[in-house]
Specification:
5-stranded mixed β-sheet, 17 strands, alpha/beta, 3-stranded parallel β-sheet, 16% strand
Length: 364
């Protein structure tokens, strides 16, 4: 009996320690629960995809000072090549290319906006670099425009399309702050031993205004950007010239998302691939209904939501990419609508079957 009594006392003591009483109310000791819900910026599955679907709108960061790529039309609507990429993602995810909230960002603002969660995707003439891909924590989608840095100066100052960087000795060159162009022009001029003055502004409108006012002898940025502004701001044809003939850098431009969300990244990637593949197989906004009803091959059938499609497994509707082509067009249509009209040629941005670099993995 003595042993049994001792055992009973020990058990009661353990129960009391675990469940004690205070003022007649039973209290329970608990540990901090493990968080099982996703952060507010993500959907319940941990991906931004579900958040965007639940919200019913895509939040896209763009440029509004670069005609052809990102600007506002006379009605105040955002238009341009990069803007159309936002629309393509919205069409894929939400079935509505117009379900986009645009945020105009300067070059210096864009990465903070993306990493802070203020935008879902950045589609603003942004170069894919090692630093941005690693240290800044961005994930880049496939390149949508292959570019290179050039310089624009006044013909009246003796410059021509055959001019070289050496001809800029002693010049004041202006460009955007917070861009790869700063480092590129500095390193290029240093390697040539050419002295010059570099002045930067956060807004490219200020860069161009200072060039117009004569405070800058030349401006430098992506060649496409110079063609864009030359086509809309040049006082008279031939007043401004772009050089050198061979760009001084490689500038692979494309959308970017915050690192660490493979589901969302896949959505952006395959939306771009759908644009490219559609052009390759001749699927356009005008004939996509016929192509969907009578697909020329299994790949087009799957891409448009037919038998064996993989959009469902990505968390999208089966006809996600059909909506992209129907509402926005294929890559060639987007290019022609926004860039061909500025005088930009396909070149490296042509399809691989035409000698360009636009190449998409198969829809298998």
């Amino acid at each position: 009996m003595g042993k049994r009594l001792i055992l009973l006392v020990v058990v009661l003591a353990m129960v009391a320690a675990a469940c004690g009483t205070t003022g007649g109310e039973t209290t329970t000791t608990t540990t901090e629960p493990t968080q099982t819900t996703a952060p507010p910026s993500q959907g319940s599955d941990g991906s931004l995809l579900q958040t965007v679907i639940d919200r019913g709108q895509l939040e896209c960061g763009v440029n509004e000072t670069l005609p052809g790529f990102g600007s506002k039309d006379s009605s105040g609507n955002y238009v341009g090549f990069d803007v159309d990429l936002c629309k393509a993602v919205a069409a894929a995810v939400l079935g509505d290319a117009n379900a986009v909230v645009y945020t105009s960002l300067t070059a210096a603002q864009r990465f903070e906006a993306l990493n802070s969660g203020s935008i879902d995707v950045l589609s603003r003439n942004t170069t894919w670099t090692q630093n941005r891909d690693t240290e800044l924590g961005l994930t880049f989608a496939p390149t949508t425009y292959y570019d290179g840095q050039q310089v624009m100066a006044r013909a009246a100052d003796g410059f021509s399309s055959d001019s070289t960087l050496q001809d800029l000795a002693g010049a004041t060159i202006c460009t955007n702050a917070g861009t790869t162009t700063e480092k590129n022009i500095q390193e290029s001029m240093d390697s040539l031993g050419v002295d010059f003055t570099l002045t930067t502004f956060e807004d490219f409108n200020l860069v161009l205004q200072n060039f117009k006012d004569g405070a800058c002898d030349a401006v430098t940025t992506d060649g496409s950007g110079l063609v864009s502004r030359k086509s809309t701001d040049e006082p008279a044809p031939g007043d401004w010239v772009i050089f050198p003939t061979v760009p001084i850098s490689k500038e692979p431009l494309g959308p970017a998302v915050k690192q660490g969300d493979d589901v969302w990244s896949d959505v952006i990637d395959w939306t771009v691939f759908a644009l490219i593949t559609a052009e390759e197989f001749g699927v356009t906004s005008a004939n996509v209904d016929d192509m969907k009803a009578n697909p020329p091959n299994g790949e087009v059938d799957r891409m448009l939501g037919g038998e064996g499609e993989y959009q469902t497994s990505m968390g999208l509707n089966p006809d996600a990419f059909y909506q992209v082509i129907k509402q926005v067009g294929n890559y060639g249509e987007v290019f022609d609508r926004n860039l061909t009209v500025l005088g930009l040629q396909r070149g490296l941005n042509g399809l691989w079957i035409n000698g360009g670099l636009m190449y998409a993995p198969p829809f298998h």
